[in-house]
Amino acid sequence: MFCKKCGAETTDDSAFCPKCGQILNDTKQQLNSNEKVQGGMQLLVMIASIILIIVGAVSFIGTCS
Fold this sequence. Notes:
Layout: H1 26-64
């Protein structure tokens, strides 16, 4: 991996660039937490949609009887 600020080569598990001190892993951690939030939100929307479809179907069947 290379530092985006100065271009120095770093190890994959480095938190800071050994040459300039730039934070390296902060971006990865933000991306991982954003992906988790988006995944959780997608699951919530999917569950809500399924519940609405079931409630709508039950209401429709109840009015047809």
